[in-house]
Design goal:
The complex is a heterodimer of chains A (440) and B (558).
Chain A: H1 15-20, H2 25-31, H3 35-45, H4 57-62, E1 73-78, H5 88-94, H6 96-110, E2 114-119, H7 124-139, H8 147-151, E3 158-163, H9 173-180, E4 204-208, H10 209-213, H11 215-221, H12 223-227, E5 237-244, E6 250-255, H13 260-267, E7 277-281, E8 290-291, H14 302-307, E9 316-321, H15 326-340, H16 346-363, H17 369-382, H18 390-404, H19 406-413
Helix pairs in contact in A: 2-6, 2-11, 3-6, 15-16, 15-18, 16-17, 16-18, 17-18
Chain B: E1 3-6, E2 9-12, H1 19-25, E3 49-52, E4 59-60, E5 71-73, H2 77-92, H3 108-116, E6 134-137, E7 140-142, H4 152-160, E8 166-169, E9 176-179, H5 192-196, E10 202-204, E11 217-222, E12 231-237, E13 240-246, H6 259-264, E14 279-282, E15 285-288, H7 291-302, E16 310-314, H8 320-334, E17 339-341, H9 363-368, H10 380-388, E18 394-398, H11 410-413, E19 418-423, E20 435-438, E21 447-450, E22 455-459, H12 489-492, H13 501-511, H14 521-531, H15 540-543, E23 548-549
Helix pairs in contact in B: 2-3, 7-13, 8-13, 8-14
The chains are: A alpha/beta (440), B alpha+beta (558).
Bound molecules: flavin mononucleotide, iron/sulfur cluster (3 copies) and FE2/S2 (inorganic) cluster.
Chain lengths: 440, 558
Amino acid sequence: MEKIVLPDIKDFHKLEVYLQHGGYSAAKKAFGQSSDDIIDQVKRSGLRGRGGAAFLTGLKWSFMPKTTDKPKYLCVNGDESEPGSFKDRQIFEYNPHQLIEGIIITCYAIGAKVAYIYIRGEYHKWIKLMQKALDDAYAAGYVGEKMKEKFGTDFYCDIYIHKGAGAYICGEESALMNSIEGKRGYPRVKPPFPAQNGLWGCPTTINNVETITNVPPIINKGWEWFASIGEPKHPGTILFGVSGHVNKPGVYELPSGTLLTDIIYNYAGGVPGNKKILCVIPGGSSMPPLRGDQIEGVKMDAESLKAAGSAIGTGGIMVMDEDTDLVKVLARIAHFYHHESCGQCTPCREGTGWLEKILKRLIAGKGSVSDLDLLITVANQIEGNTICALGEAAAWPVKFMVERFRDYFEQRVSKEISLPVANKVHSMRHTAIPVEEIKH
Amino acid sequence: MPKIIIDGNEIEFKQGQTIIEAAKDHGIEIPHFCWHPKLSVSGNCRMCLVEVEKMPKLVIACATVASEGMVVHTQSPKTIAARNAVMEFLLINHPLDCPICDEAGECKLQDYAYQHSIGESRFVEEKVHKDKRVKIGPRVMFDAERCISCSRCIRFCDEIAKDSELTFTRRGDRVTITTFPGEELDNPYSMNVVDICPVGALTNADFRFKARVWDMSHTNSICIGCSRGCNIEIWVRNNEILRLTPRHNEDVNSYWMCDHGRLNTFKFVNSETRVNSPHIRKEGQLIRVSWDEAFAEAASRLRTFGKDQIAVIGSAYATCEDNYLVSKFAKNILGTGNLDFIRHIDYSFADDILRKEDLTPNSLGAELMGVKPLKNGLNVEEIIKSIKEGKIKALYLIEDDILTADPEIETYLAKLELLIVHAANFNQSTNFADIVFPAATYAEKNGTFINFQGRLQRIRPAVATIEVDRALEGMALSRLDKFGTKFDRWAQGKHFDARATWKILTSLSNAFGSRWKYKMAEDVFDEMVSSIPELKGLNYDIIGDLGVQLKLEKVNVV
Ligand SMILES: Cc1cc2nc3c(=O)[nH]c(=O)nc-3n(C[C@H](O)[C@H](O)[C@H](O)COP(=O)(O)O)c2cc1C
Ligand code: SF4
Ligand code: SF4
Ligand code: SF4
Ligand code: FES
């Protein structure tokens, strides 16, 4: 299978290697066409955002006003803070130039002269790796004013890396823009949407790192080629980050629509000790969890997962075996959203803490069955009533976990099940280049 | 005009208005905490969630722009459920210290809890604890547990006071407001945050624990701190003013007032230094006398001076009614043209928000009432000069302190053969006075002021003096003011024996043998209307609560 985002080419992160394999030729090709043509090709390719909502990328770009006297911006979202999601950092590490090339093409398409890559602060290593690639690209004339000479066009753009300060909420696109502006990472009330009123009040497009990295191959090989990969309604490959109780956790680039069970059992090597699967969260911690007996036949693309009662999210697949204490899992997830709620709007600010407190009480054996109903109502009272989607992110896991594992939770609060300590699985991997070797 | 339908009622809206604004214009209140008509929209409290047909989710009425044909439901089951949810969430970590909270009685959280919540809590966990009793600025106290994080106070400082002192810090349910490092909440408008804070998180340090809100009466009035004439309410319990709050008037002060006006313009009313009943200097001492004795003494002594030996100084602190009679008294009774008032100008006080350099409420009024030198008459500077030269031998000084006009005058005041002063409080001028008439303060009388814009505004009695008939004057009552019962708050407080200047001058003129018939300030006003063209057609009802703009030749006296 062909890999689009993380090709199996040694040292692909190096500019020379990237160039040997046709690097920056997509940009050259793009600059020879009109920006509308580029948007059109991306639209037809069917590329959908990889940042969580699977929104059509070409359509998003077309929202950018054509006539405006304001500068336009591109923000590339590499905040990657959703538990279970660790795929963008592979791009920073293994394919930074394709991301940079995607950025300059996108800037050209939407008419932006400045792009920001927002990377979560905890990714020190990856920030350095990405900066190194960017410096190389600048030096070689693929970014910045020297682009004019390099590509023989009037167009050029600048790219800046902006380091986050450790808040999940800054991955939400409008909080991300506030953060770049130096303000508190508070999501903005929408409308107005970023395409009208984004960074510094100017038209702005926000896309995920993986989304943008898909752009150069689409331009080079044509939208028809891309549209034919995987599921037609959500084409291309997807980076699936698999974690939890699997033998080979890691990031797998596979065509959309690959069976969830294939990913778990074939690619990720199955469950240690051949245990049964109790629960799978298929798209990062905020997506509705599936029961082990619901995953058979489920394809990994936006539409299929929706039909199965969950969502693709960021493609972070979290596998939990039969010995997992789901109350603890849920309490840990609730703790995360409570900790990360920005505190701006009432339902999320107050509700996330309440959810965590109830769950902690259940762990302590001081809960009752009525608390399960309370969890669901509190989650429902948050959902749909907040400024940003963190509300849903906090509500969904609770609501769906309790609903879908009702029998389990009822037995658990009645202390009918006793559980061993859950396995601890670490998904950290080593980087390709030791950070010390990076020179600036 | 385009229309939307709210709960079945078709209402018109102006292009660009949000649902909450359109509703408000038609008297429909959509519950809200964070929205304020004069601040930017923050959309954070979620109390204003409403159902709009064809929209997938509930929307916030404060940020959703109305569009033709929109159908809004503010009472549908979904809307009510969302509102109850927001109320439940707001209350779970709230300390519920209503019994000791100053805001109780005028708290949006209390009111909405009564109107819009299910009345019980399902929350059995430990509440989040935060700082209490934080002195966030010299005049404002902060209780973080009561804060509902609506950001009104932050937006006020940023957008109205234009002095960014406050911000949020921390996240989630640990969020709290704080001042920026090295900052205090001490801008000249800082206390407005107390009014706009929907709960008791920010309280007035001066008023803290002084009274329950429902124990006080509130009376519409005007601030006397400067010529802006901010519209205010005077809050009284046991006949004592406990606080002032701004009253909305878009043409004058919007929803705001400055801290100086709020704190420094009412304490003299209940102060120990009040002049209580008329005084006559006998053997060097000011001695309390009856009104009749004071009037007889004043009339007989004034009669002994020639017109050119007398000067009258009116007052920009006094009402138009007072000054009108000052002018009439000077011209018709004393026959002198040496008539003027003292200006109190301080450019350092002014700003481009509300504060004006003229530190009196009624300079334009005093002028329009004719308190100015007649032909060949002396103005203030000339009066002072003439006192020094011994040419002016009798001075009639209304509600002011002549030492503020010229401190050097002190040594010459003793030279005067007669100094009569109307004063609410003993001051440097009364030290030299031969006769002191106790003047009612702006909080004890009816009348009008003209602000720097030429706007005529009314003041009303909020505090009773001995002679004020609170029924006749239509004074405001509080919930506990039950005539004749032990709850009768008016019977309890101190009542001063003081009268409005117009009233004192009426009696004094009659002691001179004239027949002035003014019984109420309104009688004086009616005469003003017939003799001053700028006031033509006006009466107290027309002036109303918000005042009327006059067409004056000159609008800013400075
Ligand atoms: C609480 C929250 C956190 C988010 N974090 C990320 C993130 O870390 N990375 C990301 O790409 N998108 C994140 N998103 C989604 C972004 O708001 C935005 O939809 C996305 O970056 C758009 O890119 P796409 O269209 O390419 O998917 C987050 C959204 C929410 C509500
Ligand atoms: S939903 Fe949560 S994270 Fe989003 S704005 Fe509201 S409080 Fe902040
Ligand atoms: S202190 Fe009051 S005004 Fe300020 S955020 Fe809290 S509740 Fe709102
Ligand atoms: S601006 Fe002037 S009138 Fe207004 S409150 Fe301050 S002192 Fe009073
Ligand atoms: S009033 Fe609309 S969200 Fe607060």
